[in-house]
Design goal:
globular; 369 residues; two-stranded antiparallel sheet; 12 helices; alpha/beta; binds 2-Phenylacrylic acid; eight-stranded parallel β-barrel
Length: 369
Amino acid sequence: MSHSDPSVPALFTPFRIGDIAIRNRIVMAPLTRNRATHGNDAPNALNVEYYRQRASAGLIITEGTQVSQQGQGYVWTPGMYTPEQIAGWKAITDAVHAEGGKIVAQLWHVGRVSHVSLQPGGQAPVAPSARVANTKTYIASGFAAVSPPRALTLDEIPAIIGEFVSAAENAKAAGFDGIELHGAHGYLIDQFLRDDSNTRSDAYGGSIENRVRFALEVVDAVSKVFSKGRVGIRISPVSPANDARDSDPQALFMHLVTKLSEASIAFIHVVEGATREARDYLPFDYGALRKTFKGAYIANNGFTRELAIETIENGSADAIAFGRLFIANPDLVERLRRNAPLNTPVVETFYGGDATGYTDYPALAEQAA
Ligand code: 8OZ
């Protein structure tokens, strides 16, 4: 199959996301699975197998990976801040690269979406402002309301940015092709962006220009570790996940994306609509973001094969990220290429547990056998 074969939809053809050459435009979306090693939150052999099975994706974006213990919001999510975690990730990037795949690490600080039982010393989680989110997390004992956060002081902010830098350095040492910042779903970066969760009166709050400051400083700082051509960010302009709310998302995200374009990063990854809900959950002009950003535009949320092919053909996106379909179909690329039937994801085994519902979804060849 070649680029020029008109019978092959562009979805299945190679592309470059910044400095990262990908062999098709099908991206594995970041997916929290809560299967890191209990006790040290390091990736393990089961996690290696899971990512290896999915390496035919043009690009894998890892599950959210906390940049520090303070950045953790759920039990058994992997970290990027200890030698054991870096070694665990190295085995994953080696396995994916051995299959000819590409993989970037999603760097994550949950901010206020956490629980004291996960925090260092049982302290309160940190946030732009001391405003509790109306949302739940899950800890070792099950679902729990998030703990009330305390507001970060102005002089603490450089150290949080420093955690993203250290995590980026660790991701580089672990062999990743780049990084995606988790700027979506009501976590720390998103909390700074929005006027409901950010009521600060210093340089990081108030105007849109001030609320995007934290995101842009993190982008700038990690771009000194990986080149700009290997840095991206995920955003979810209208998603209500984790109580994210803003009075004017269109103006906020137009300004942010204008600045991200000026920063010349490789990609923006946009959750269109709300995860697990409709793509037109609330009115929003994604085309305006697409037009504003000069790098690659990765679109996500609820795409079917048909819509993905159409969206690449009409130029509304450069690549399409699939989440739930990648949980259930390790060989999703081959299945989409052949228009083969898809396995159905089993929600009960999404978060936590063992190989069941994780590495035991069959590929086409195994199914036929
Ligand atoms: C599902 C469960 C826990 C976390 C996100 C990182 O929504 C998540 C997440 C999803 O971005």
